[in-house]
Protein backbone atom coordinates (compact mmCIF):
# COMPACT_ATOMS: atom_id res chain seq x y z
CA UNK A 1 0.00 0.00 0.00
CA UNK A 2 1.39 3.40 -0.89
CA UNK A 3 0.76 6.72 0.90
CA UNK A 4 -1.93 7.80 -1.58
CA UNK A 5 -4.08 4.79 -0.71
CA UNK A 6 -4.10 5.69 3.02
CA UNK A 7 -6.87 7.81 4.51
CA UNK A 8 -5.84 11.21 5.88
CA UNK A 9 -6.10 9.84 9.43
CA UNK A 10 -3.83 6.88 8.62
CA UNK A 11 -1.23 8.82 6.63
CA UNK A 12 2.07 9.51 8.41
CA UNK A 13 1.79 13.02 9.89
CA UNK A 14 5.32 14.05 8.99
CA UNK A 15 5.29 13.22 5.28
CA UNK A 16 5.19 16.84 4.19
CA UNK A 17 5.62 18.92 7.35
CA UNK A 18 8.97 20.62 7.79
CA UNK A 19 10.99 19.57 10.81
CA UNK A 20 10.52 22.99 12.32
CA UNK A 21 8.44 22.39 15.41
CA UNK A 22 10.26 20.88 18.36
CA UNK A 23 12.64 18.99 16.10
CA UNK A 24 16.23 19.47 15.10
CA UNK A 25 17.77 18.92 11.72
CA UNK A 26 20.73 16.96 13.07
CA UNK A 27 19.43 13.46 13.71
CA UNK A 28 15.87 14.79 14.03
CA UNK A 29 14.10 13.85 10.81
CA UNK A 30 14.03 10.08 10.85
CA UNK A 31 11.10 8.76 8.80
CA UNK A 32 11.62 10.67 5.58
CA UNK A 33 14.33 12.56 3.74
CA UNK A 34 15.37 16.03 4.82
CA UNK A 35 14.00 18.63 2.42
CA UNK A 36 14.93 22.16 1.40
CA UNK A 37 11.98 23.35 3.54
CA UNK A 38 13.64 21.82 6.60
CA UNK A 39 16.80 23.80 5.82
CA UNK A 40 14.82 27.03 5.49
CA UNK A 41 13.14 26.32 8.84
CA UNK A 42 16.53 25.65 10.45
CA UNK A 43 17.76 29.07 9.30
CA UNK A 44 14.69 30.69 10.84
CA UNK A 45 15.24 29.09 14.21
CA UNK A 46 19.00 29.69 14.06
CA UNK A 47 20.04 26.02 14.04
CA UNK A 48 23.45 25.31 12.54
CA UNK A 49 23.90 22.10 10.55
CA UNK A 50 26.64 20.03 8.99
CA UNK A 51 27.09 18.80 5.45
CA UNK A 52 29.65 16.19 4.34
CA UNK A 53 30.66 14.99 0.93
CA UNK A 54 30.05 11.34 0.04
CA UNK A 55 30.96 9.39 -3.08
CA UNK A 56 29.76 5.84 -2.38
CA UNK A 57 26.91 3.96 -0.74
CA UNK A 58 28.91 2.53 2.17
CA UNK A 59 30.34 5.80 3.45
CA UNK A 60 27.11 7.68 2.77
CA UNK A 61 25.27 5.10 4.89
CA UNK A 62 27.60 5.75 7.82
CA UNK A 63 26.97 9.51 7.63
CA UNK A 64 23.23 8.98 7.22
CA UNK A 65 23.15 6.81 10.34
CA UNK A 66 25.17 9.48 12.15
CA UNK A 67 22.39 11.98 11.41
CA UNK A 68 24.20 14.26 8.94
CA UNK A 69 21.22 15.99 7.29
CA UNK A 70 22.75 16.89 3.91
CA UNK A 71 25.22 14.87 1.85
CA UNK A 72 26.98 16.42 -1.11
CA UNK A 73 28.14 14.26 -3.97
CA UNK A 74 30.78 16.86 -4.72
CA UNK A 75 32.81 16.94 -7.89
CA UNK A 76 35.65 16.88 -5.35
CA UNK A 77 35.18 13.18 -6.15
CA UNK A 78 37.65 14.05 -8.92
CA UNK A 79 40.58 14.59 -6.57
CA UNK A 80 39.29 12.77 -3.46
CA UNK A 81 37.91 9.57 -4.97
CA UNK A 82 38.84 9.15 -8.64
CA UNK A 83 42.52 10.08 -8.54
CA UNK A 84 42.47 13.24 -10.70
CA UNK A 85 44.42 16.36 -9.72
CA UNK A 86 41.41 18.70 -9.90
CA UNK A 87 37.63 18.57 -10.28
CA UNK A 88 37.84 19.62 -13.94
CA UNK A 89 37.91 16.16 -15.62
CA UNK A 90 34.81 14.85 -13.78
CA UNK A 91 32.02 13.85 -16.17
CA UNK A 92 28.24 13.63 -15.97
CA UNK A 93 28.44 9.83 -16.29
CA UNK A 94 30.73 9.68 -13.25
CA UNK A 95 28.57 12.08 -11.21
CA UNK A 96 25.44 10.12 -12.09
CA UNK A 97 26.98 6.82 -11.03
CA UNK A 98 28.40 8.15 -7.75
CA UNK A 99 25.20 10.05 -6.91
CA UNK A 100 23.01 6.99 -7.49
CA UNK A 101 25.23 5.02 -5.10
CA UNK A 102 24.92 7.71 -2.40
CA UNK A 103 21.13 7.82 -2.79
CA UNK A 104 20.96 4.01 -2.54
CA UNK A 105 23.07 4.05 0.61
CA UNK A 106 20.90 6.57 2.48
CA UNK A 107 17.36 6.91 3.77
CA UNK A 108 17.26 10.24 5.48
CA UNK A 109 19.79 12.74 4.17
CA UNK A 110 19.02 15.25 1.45
CA UNK A 111 21.43 14.23 -1.33
CA UNK A 112 22.80 17.13 -3.38
CA UNK A 113 24.88 16.42 -6.50
CA UNK A 114 27.36 18.74 -8.17
CA UNK A 115 26.91 19.61 -11.82
CA UNK A 116 30.48 19.03 -13.04
CA UNK A 117 32.58 21.44 -15.11
CA UNK A 118 31.20 21.83 -18.64
CA UNK A 119 27.78 20.39 -17.83
CA UNK A 120 25.91 23.68 -17.26
CA UNK A 121 27.94 26.68 -18.47
CA UNK A 122 26.91 26.38 -22.12
CA UNK A 123 23.27 27.37 -21.61
CA UNK A 124 20.43 27.12 -19.08
CA UNK A 125 18.94 24.41 -21.32
CA UNK A 126 22.11 22.32 -21.02
CA UNK A 127 22.03 22.81 -17.24
CA UNK A 128 18.40 21.67 -17.04
CA UNK A 129 19.07 18.59 -19.17
CA UNK A 130 21.93 17.51 -16.90
CA UNK A 131 20.19 18.44 -13.63
CA UNK A 132 17.17 16.43 -14.73
CA UNK A 133 19.46 13.48 -15.46
CA UNK A 134 20.87 13.60 -11.91
CA UNK A 135 17.35 13.72 -10.48
CA UNK A 136 15.82 11.05 -12.74
CA UNK A 137 18.71 8.56 -13.06
CA UNK A 138 20.44 9.03 -9.69
CA UNK A 139 17.47 10.18 -7.59
CA UNK A 140 19.15 13.19 -5.97
CA UNK A 141 17.01 15.82 -4.25
CA UNK A 142 18.97 18.87 -5.42
CA UNK A 143 21.92 19.97 -7.52
CA UNK A 144 24.78 22.37 -6.87
CA UNK A 145 26.55 24.58 -9.37
CA UNK A 146 29.30 27.17 -9.16
CA UNK A 147 29.06 30.90 -9.86
CA UNK A 148 27.17 33.93 -8.56
CA UNK A 149 25.89 36.60 -10.95
CA UNK A 150 27.24 34.64 -13.92
CA UNK A 151 25.05 31.62 -13.03
CA UNK A 152 21.91 33.50 -11.91
CA UNK A 153 19.94 33.02 -15.16
CA UNK A 154 20.69 29.28 -15.11
CA UNK A 155 19.61 28.97 -11.47
CA UNK A 156 16.37 30.79 -12.28
CA UNK A 157 15.51 28.36 -15.08
CA UNK A 158 16.32 25.29 -12.99
CA UNK A 159 14.26 26.54 -10.05
CA UNK A 160 11.34 27.40 -12.35
CA UNK A 161 11.51 23.84 -13.68
CA UNK A 162 11.35 22.41 -10.14
CA UNK A 163 15.03 21.70 -9.51
CA UNK A 164 16.25 22.77 -6.05
CA UNK A 165 19.61 24.51 -6.51
CA UNK A 166 22.44 25.02 -4.04
CA UNK A 167 24.74 27.76 -5.32
CA UNK A 168 28.50 28.03 -4.72
CA UNK A 169 30.37 31.35 -4.61
CA UNK A 170 33.72 32.63 -3.37
CA UNK A 171 36.40 30.15 -4.39
CA UNK A 172 34.95 28.04 -7.21
CA UNK A 173 37.32 25.08 -7.74
CA UNK A 174 36.13 24.38 -11.29
CA UNK A 175 37.85 27.68 -12.20
CA UNK A 176 41.19 26.52 -10.80
CA UNK A 177 43.04 27.16 -14.06
CA UNK A 178 41.55 30.65 -14.49
CA UNK A 179 42.26 31.52 -10.85
CA UNK A 180 45.79 30.10 -10.95
CA UNK A 181 45.19 27.94 -7.88
CA UNK A 182 42.87 28.14 -4.89
CA UNK A 183 43.28 31.67 -3.49
CA UNK A 184 41.08 33.14 -0.73
CA UNK A 185 38.29 35.25 -2.29
CA UNK A 186 36.59 38.47 -1.21
CA UNK A 187 39.62 40.27 0.23
CA UNK A 188 39.63 44.01 -0.38
CA UNK A 189 36.71 46.34 -1.11
CA UNK A 190 36.11 45.42 -4.73
CA UNK A 191 36.29 41.68 -4.19
CA UNK A 192 34.15 41.93 -1.07
CA UNK A 193 31.42 43.83 -2.93
CA UNK A 194 31.58 41.31 -5.78
CA UNK A 195 31.09 38.43 -3.34
CA UNK A 196 28.12 40.17 -1.72
CA UNK A 197 26.56 40.79 -5.16
CA UNK A 198 27.12 37.13 -6.10
CA UNK A 199 25.43 35.89 -2.92
CA UNK A 200 22.44 38.23 -3.39
CA UNK A 201 22.14 37.25 -7.06
CA UNK A 202 21.85 33.51 -6.34
CA UNK A 203 19.32 34.12 -3.58
CA UNK A 204 17.31 36.35 -5.92
CA UNK A 205 17.49 33.64 -8.61
CA UNK A 206 15.89 31.15 -6.21
CA UNK A 207 18.77 29.08 -4.81
CA UNK A 208 17.77 27.37 -1.54
CA UNK A 209 21.29 27.66 -0.04
CA UNK A 210 24.71 28.94 -1.00
CA UNK A 211 28.17 27.55 -0.33
CA UNK A 212 30.74 30.22 0.62
CA UNK A 213 34.22 28.83 -0.01
CA UNK A 214 37.52 30.37 1.15
CA UNK A 215 36.11 33.72 2.24
CA UNK A 216 37.28 35.87 5.18
CA UNK A 217 35.21 34.97 8.28
CA UNK A 218 33.93 38.50 8.88
CA UNK A 219 32.68 38.88 5.31
CA UNK A 220 31.00 35.44 5.38
CA UNK A 221 29.23 36.35 8.64
CA UNK A 222 28.03 39.61 7.11
CA UNK A 223 26.75 37.81 3.99
CA UNK A 224 25.02 35.23 6.19
CA UNK A 225 23.19 37.95 8.13
CA UNK A 226 22.14 39.70 4.93
CA UNK A 227 20.61 36.58 3.30
CA UNK A 228 17.35 34.76 4.03
CA UNK A 229 18.72 31.47 2.60
CA UNK A 230 21.28 29.39 4.55
CA UNK A 231 24.98 29.84 3.88
CA UNK A 232 27.20 26.75 3.99
CA UNK A 233 30.77 27.65 4.83
CA UNK A 234 34.00 25.92 3.91
CA UNK A 235 36.97 28.00 4.96
CA UNK A 236 34.52 30.80 5.73
CA UNK A 237 34.54 30.97 9.54
CA UNK A 238 31.96 30.20 12.19
CA UNK A 239 29.43 32.85 11.19
CA UNK A 240 27.78 30.71 8.47
CA UNK A 241 24.49 28.84 8.97
CA UNK A 242 26.07 25.48 8.09
CA UNK A 243 29.53 23.99 7.53
CA UNK A 244 30.71 21.52 4.91
CA UNK A 245 33.89 19.45 4.79
CA UNK A 246 35.15 16.95 2.26
CA UNK A 247 34.75 13.66 4.12
CA UNK A 248 38.20 12.33 3.32
CA UNK A 249 39.71 15.49 4.86
CA UNK A 250 37.39 15.41 7.88
CA UNK A 251 38.16 11.77 8.67
CA UNK A 252 41.91 11.87 8.03
CA UNK A 253 41.92 9.77 4.85
CA UNK A 254 43.63 12.41 2.73
CA UNK A 255 47.35 11.87 2.11
CA UNK A 256 49.72 14.76 2.82
CA UNK A 257 48.83 18.35 3.62
CA UNK A 258 45.22 19.44 4.02
CA UNK A 259 43.97 23.04 3.69
CA UNK A 260 44.13 25.35 6.75
CA UNK A 261 40.33 25.26 7.16
CA UNK A 262 40.20 21.47 7.62
CA UNK A 263 39.86 19.86 11.03
CA UNK A 264 40.65 16.14 11.06
CA UNK A 265 38.27 14.32 13.42
CA UNK A 266 39.91 10.91 12.97
CA UNK A 267 42.98 9.27 11.48
CA UNK A 268 41.27 6.81 9.17
CA UNK A 269 44.28 6.57 6.84
CA UNK A 270 46.41 5.41 9.77
CA UNK A 271 43.77 2.97 11.05
CA UNK A 272 43.18 1.45 7.60
CA UNK A 273 46.90 1.23 6.83
CA UNK A 274 47.55 -0.51 10.17
CA UNK A 275 44.73 -2.99 9.50
CA UNK A 276 46.12 -3.78 6.02
CA UNK A 277 49.67 -4.22 7.38
CA UNK A 278 48.47 -6.51 10.18
CA UNK A 279 46.40 -8.60 7.73
CA UNK A 280 49.42 -8.97 5.40
CA UNK A 281 51.71 -9.91 8.30
CA UNK A 282 49.29 -12.57 9.58
CA UNK A 283 48.95 -14.04 6.08
CA UNK A 284 52.73 -14.17 5.81
CA UNK A 285 53.04 -15.82 9.25
CA UNK A 286 50.21 -18.29 8.70
CA UNK A 287 48.25 -16.76 11.62
CA UNK A 288 45.32 -16.00 9.32
CA UNK A 289 42.99 -17.74 8.65
CA UNK A 290 42.72 -19.39 12.09
CA UNK A 291 40.48 -22.39 12.80
CA UNK A 292 37.47 -20.12 13.56
CA UNK A 293 37.72 -18.59 10.08
CA UNK A 294 37.83 -22.02 8.38
CA UNK A 295 35.13 -24.53 7.41
CA UNK A 296 35.22 -28.14 8.62
O1 LIG B 1 32.93 19.40 -4.60
C1 LIG B 1 32.86 19.63 -3.38
O2 LIG B 1 33.14 18.78 -2.53
C2 LIG B 1 32.42 20.95 -2.97
C3 LIG B 1 32.53 21.29 -1.52
C4 LIG B 1 33.92 21.49 -1.14
C5 LIG B 1 31.66 22.44 -1.16
O3 LIG B 1 32.02 21.73 -3.78
From TrEMBL:
It catalyses: (6R)-5,10-methylene-5,6,7,8-tetrahydrofolate + 3-methyl-2-oxobutanoate + H2O = 2-dehydropantoate + (6S)-5,6,7,8-tetrahydrofolate. Its cofactor is Mg(2+). Pathway: Cofactor biosynthesis; (R)-pantothenate biosynthesis; (R)-pantoate from 3-methyl-2-oxobutanoate: step 1/2. Residues 1-24 are annotated as: Disordered. Keywords: Cytoplasm, Magnesium, Metal-binding, Pantothenate biosynthesis, Transferase. The keyword Hydrolase does not apply. Its main location: cytoplasm. Mg(2+) binds at residues 75, 114, 146. Catalyzes the reversible reaction in which hydroxymethyl group from 5,10-methylenetetrahydrofolate is transferred onto alpha-ketoisovalerate to form ketopantoate. This is 3-methyl-2-oxobutanoate hydroxymethyltransferase.
